[in-house]
């Protein structure tokens, strides 16, 4: 069962705030704005459910909600400090309402001191029996708590101590003891999970050691020929192990709560973690500042937490990503730091990085553009080609970086001759240069079958008869609407280029020749797809679909439906060449 909505009143920084949940929920926003507050509400719900699921409720009148199964939960079983949960330290209780997909609502009233009152609002017949909450509100929350370094010398503790600390900030103190007490098969399954982040590295089941009259628990790992105790591993590895520990029991019916994994994990591990989480759990809530994580998810999975707002704003299209990057403070400095590590850079135009990475994955199932092994940097068009051509030399001379540099430029309205001259000019600069065979990267999204598949998959209501033919009609109408604008811009660009070589040429004649050639080629669907302004055309198509069918279509959703043959051969070859270039 998944969470449908989360709402809280007079809770921490918010007098009132709500989140409409989906399967994937990535919370972003400035520091101290309340991302973690939403996760704290879920953490409290986790502790409340662990306690209440094992107990019989009281039947109590809850005002307009009627008689409800009610539980009184002692504050000692809740990890959060409830004294600071009430908004502005007021006297009244903070309230959290958690609704799941079967319509049931768990309501929690949290006073600044005293027990937490929680009760169930549902269509299930009111009864006073143990298990009624679990049956009517079958929500499995998996919380990754605040993580800390493992103990240098962990003493063997009782099973009760391990269980008491297992879901809180003290879990790291008995990490080895927990795994010492598990079966061999359980530990091996856990070790397999850990190896997904560190291929070639294998942890070994903990063992006991006597020292100074104490029983110490040791856990070793093998890294090639070396065997070391986990205390000598970096903090990132220790965090990865602890995260996998909490993930191991999560499944498709689980809801994962994870707060800022980017604080502990470098970009490569962030990608791997998100991939594991996406495949393993049915729903997740992740608070983050990481552009790596944000770039890996669909735009509609991102929720912006804004100052003064009463609800989280879900991104509706790719254009709204700019506000996300502003809110999390993404900067050129971060890119430069990554470049120092990767020694590989790919220059692309505008905000094309996310889309390029997803298209590359369609071509060769590779993540070489999305796993942070290549630094993607922005370049604003042909006019800035000198920045690209000299970047390898500058980085080597001034920063002593030996880097591999490649670039992908939009074609815009340039003709074949002008493009080839440009590529030839860059050949002597040690830069691998490509110019797209289409006006801009968004042109590659103009695939009617992929757009229809995205609509069919993400429609929330049954689509009317003939909807596919209607989408094809929308597509054709939008493309045809750009014919005149496109023809004149291509002709103007052709004339401009010809006049640089032959200044005395007759301008009207050149313009007429270009328009005539354009008219002949316009009958070909692939020509139309390649030459129209892709970003504008795609935007117009998805807006028309949204207006008529109520379905949100994004670049990510379309690329998810694209097949290899939907991408032109020259683009496929480009991605393959780039992968080989950066791999060698």
Write a brief structural summary.
The protein has 584 residues and is an alpha/beta fold.
Shape: globular
CATH fold category name of the largest domain: Rossmann fold
Largest sheet: 7 strands, antiparallel
Q: Report the end-to-end length measured between terminal Cα atoms.
A: 47 Å
Number of strands: 23
Q: Kindly report the spatial arrangement of strands forming the biggest sheet.
A: 2-1-6-7-8-5-4
Poorly predicted tracts of residues: 329-333
Describe the fold and architecture.
By secondary structure, the chain is α/β, with parallel strands linked by helices. The protein has 4 domains: 3-138 and 253-327, Rossmann fold (3-Layer(aba) Sandwich), CATH 3.40.50.300; 154-247, 2-Layer Sandwich (Alpha-Beta Plaits); 332-437, Dna Topoisomerase Vi A Subunit, Chain: A, domain 2 (3-Layer(aba) Sandwich); 454-563, no CATH class. Helices cover 42% and strands 20% of the residues. It is built from 21 helices and 23 strands. The strands form 5 sheets. A 7-stranded antiparallel sheet has the order 2-1-6-7-8-5-4. Strands 9-16-17-3-18-19 form a 6-stranded mixed sheet. β4 (58-61) and β5 (67-73) form a beta hairpin. α5 packs across α6, α11 (353-364) runs parallel beside α20 and α14 (448-458) packs across α20. It is globular and about 90 Å long. The chain starts with a strand and ends with a helix. Residues 329-333 have low confidence and may be disordered.
